[in-house]
Amino acid sequence: MKFSTFFLLVCFSSFAVGSCLDNDEYKKKRTDIVKESRELNRSYKECKESAYNNTYWKAVSECTLKGLGKDIGGGCGHMVGQGAYPMQEPDKNHCEIFHIPKEVILEYRQQLIDELELQKCET
User: Fold this and answer.
1) Model pTM above 0.70
2) What angle do CA 77, 57, 54 make, to 5 degrees?
């Protein structure tokens, strides 16, 4: 009798919870959702990095043309990176067209969670 009562309780509680995921499965799914939602701003991030890299290499080439950095390990690249040779602030304004607001990303993330009916098991 005790066993059948225990069995019924376990079965009932599993139906009551629905399809939940254990901690490891839940964490993996949530991590995947976060990664996927971050991809929305990938173009924006890459555009900003590209603008920075362009400005960096422009400064390195100017430094090299001036003949600086010959006696320094890493040369002009090191000088620009450490701020010993000036680098202009990169113009990133053109990248704003790719920017997706945080609220939209969070809404998308929640939509993915809802679509998967992602539930964490109660422990």
Assistant:
1) no
2) 145
